[in-house]
Please model this.
Amino acid sequence: MEKEICFYSDGFKITGTLCFPDKSSEDKKYPIVIMSHGYGAGRNEFGDFIFLAKELAEEGFASLRFDCRGCGYSQYPLGRMLCATDWRQDLISAIYFCSSYPGIDEKRIGLFGESMGGANVIAASSLEKISKCVVALSPIADGFEWLKNNWSRNRGMDEFKEFLNIIEEDNRRQAAYGKSNLIKMKDALNYEQRYLDLVDTLKNSFTDREFTYYVELASVNSIMHLKPLDVVDRISPKPLLLMAGKKDKIVPWEEHSRPLFEKAGNIKKLEVFDYGEHGLLAEPTEVEALACITEWYRKYL
Model:
């Protein structure tokens, strides 16, 4: 059973979809998994989160997927995705919303995030005490290093330094006029070519509300202030599952998942899939990844 809901984060209306295993009642409470999507993806994560919600429901878990500010249908300028601040607060607000919602067991709230959402669940769970366990797929450990490495590998360090100057100029423009300029996502993140082609495919396959192709330079600046590696040790004693693919060239696991795992607290696990790409909830890792996720929630939620 699914229903559309809304809650508020810093006074802005956040829209989402709440999924129950069956018709809920106040005398029956379910554990819930709150999902945090990737950069520009929106609540459904191109279908991955719809699939995951159905699988979790079969296991007896409720779930909430929602549009972080700047994406989807939440009340905020589209493309203004301040992932180091707004997104973290949006997730914390979602946790408080679920903790008081009828049919939800407030003592059994788990978090799930993919890519930028994986970084978000780590950052948010280090600040709140309600959630009980965390699963992060292909998470970013350090936003500045991630951007710098993307640019240096695919465009060169000189061009990255020029891009930093553009962001600095945009900061001045925001201070003077209150607005940040827009940039194509692929021009900001500078993946290798096959992933840039995928970004264009997504743009042509989804609406602006389903995939945010134009992002504010302020959003890119926010990425550079996102550093889950600095706070991942604060999650403990919450159990943390990190998952990554060896073939992931968007967020290489050696540079992100491994250092996060090494710095995390005592109850932790790192699953690295030999044939995994960035999106682990797709072939050829879909079944194996799903099994790891549900096993973690059954054990710790």
Observations:
- The beta strands are 2-9, 12-19, 30-36, 62-66, 104-114, 133-137, 182-184, 214-216, 240-245, 268-273.
- Residues 157-177 form the longest helix (21 residues).
- Residues 244 and 253 are 6 Å apart (CA to CA).
- The chain has a mean pLDDT of 96.
